[in-house]
């Protein structure tokens, strides 16, 4: 199914299919091809993440001048922020080939041994979702990263012997959304760790202008600004919303991504001015209107919005918490003043007092419907 229609997918029981949202930061298989076409190829073309870009640029340039592979690189951060893109860039900057695999694909040490033993000198090995590798493969990886050696076990039981196999120097680029899950010995083998953060609107505007050019669609400043502001700081979401606005512009408009097309298309896909979708707003509505702002337990809240607790917790809540609409308290979830304002409701006195807001600040908010 084209991803643009995914926000409409509902399960048979009427609940929202959590994997099917237009605002899902995780990529879908259908998207890989179009995403590949939109990836920046070199560090100089990569907008945003200035710290990681400068640090990585230094590491790569120094390695290039020394004529030896750089330290292993770990990239961490939420989905859709450019970890895979940067891994490809590392190989491109070093002018070396890249081998791509992922933690879930390496369930046995033997799987990893097969990959490692076929690497050429200086090759880049990209290990996506590295936190999902099996323990035995992790142990083999430590050794390979440190000593460029693997011990291949031949035979079984007491007669098994380890045959050391020398490897040519290579560079591992690991990517993870859960750096905290990596065992310390593995984390320590990476000489450089870059943490990717959400992008600001100005960087998303730059990314969208470039993507529009690559997609061959005309986009004006107001159109890209409108899309950037609703993309949850995530290039993958920005590029996806851009494609939906382009669709709208081609079907209903003049083919130009402008403010009118962006507003109409994003309204059609239920993405509001703050980048919240139907599920996000349903959570805020339930919290404020039904439970007086909370605190309320997760499962009660989930029942009120007709979703699984897990969906509310993993799909809607992280962004609502990060943007300061919802607080997670020991007694449950609570709405902040921003949540009340977002719904166009007056902020209750108690919430305003807790957040030490002047009471005159508690009128209807920016995003009154
Ligand atoms: N800084 C950037 N500039 C331009 N496009 C970007 C940037 N970062 C990410 N993108 C685009 O966003 C999409 C997703 O990026 P990428 O696959 O690198 O993310 P990721 O962090 O590896 O995600 P995941 O954790 O899901 O694998 C790609 O189309 C990529 O081109």
UniProtKB/TrEMBL annotation:
Catalyses which reaction(s): ATP + H2O = ADP + phosphate + H(+)
This protein's name: Holliday junction branch migration complex subunit RuvB
Keyword Kinase attributed: no
EC number in record: 3.6.4.-
Source organism of the structure: Phycicoccus flavus
Subunit comment: Homohexamer. Forms an RuvA(8)-RuvB(12)-Holliday junction (HJ) complex. HJ DNA is sandwiched between 2 RuvA tetramers; dsDNA enters through RuvA and exits via RuvB. An RuvB hexamer assembles on each DNA strand where it exits the tetramer. Each RuvB hexamer is contacted by two RuvA subunits (via domain III) on 2 adjacent RuvB subunits; this complex drives branch migration. In the full resolvosome a probable DNA-RuvA(4)-RuvB(12)-RuvC(2) complex forms which resolves the HJ.
Region (Small ATPAse domain (RuvB-S)): 200-270
Any one GO cellular component localisation term in the record: Holliday junction resolvase complex
Organism taxonomic ancestry: Bacteria, Bacillati, Actinomycetota, Actinomycetes, Micrococcales
GO biological-process terms attached to the record: DNA recombination; DNA repair
Chief site of localization: cytoplasm
């Amino acid at each position: 199914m084209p991803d643009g229609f995914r926000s409409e997918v509902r399960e048979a029981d009427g609940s929202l299919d959590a994997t099917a949202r237009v605002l899902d930061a995780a990529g879908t298989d259908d998207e890989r091809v179009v995403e590949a076409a939109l990836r920046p190829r070199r560090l100089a073309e990569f907008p945003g993440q200035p710290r990681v870009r400068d640090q990585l640029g230094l590491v790569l340039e120094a390695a290039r001048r020394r004529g030896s592979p750089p330290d292993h690189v770990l990239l961490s951060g939420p989905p859709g922020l450019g970890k895979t893109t940067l891994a490809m860039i590392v190989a491109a900057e070093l002018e070396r080939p890249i081998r791509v695999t992922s933690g879930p694909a390496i369930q046995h040490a033997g799987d990893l041994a097969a990959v490692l033993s076929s690497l050429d000198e200086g090759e880049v090995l990209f290990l996506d979702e590295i936190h999902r590798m099996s323990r035995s493969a992790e142990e083999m990886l430590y050794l390979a990263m440190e000593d460029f050696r693997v011990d291949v076990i031949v035979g079984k039981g007491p007669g098994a012997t380890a045959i050391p196999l020398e490897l040519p120097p290579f560079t591992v680029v690991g990517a993870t959304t859960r750096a905290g899950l990596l065992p310390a010995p593995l984390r320590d083998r990476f000489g450089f760790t870059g943490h990717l953060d959400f992008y600001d609107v100005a960087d998303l505007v730059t990314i969208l202008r470039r993507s529009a050019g690559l997609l061959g669609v005309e986009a004006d400043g107001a159109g890209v600004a409108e899309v950037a502001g609703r993309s949850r700081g995530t290039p993958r979401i920005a590029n996806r919303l851009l494609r939906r606005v382009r669709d709208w512009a081609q079907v209903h408009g003049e083919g130009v991504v402008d403010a009118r097309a962006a507003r109409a298309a994003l309204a059609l896909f239920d993405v509001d001015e703050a980048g919240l979708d139907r599920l996000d707003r349903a959570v805020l509505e339930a919290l404020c209107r039904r439970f007086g702002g909370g605190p309320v337990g997760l499962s009660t809240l989930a029942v009120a919005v007709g979703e699984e607790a897990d969906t509310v917790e993993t799909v809607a809540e992280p962004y609502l918490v990060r943007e300061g609409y919802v607080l997670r308290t020991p007694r449950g979830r609570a709405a902040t003043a921003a949540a009340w304002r977002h719904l166009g409701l007056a902020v209750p006195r108690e919430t305003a007092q807790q957040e030490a807001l002047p009471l005159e600040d508690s009128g209807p908010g920016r995003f009154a419907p």
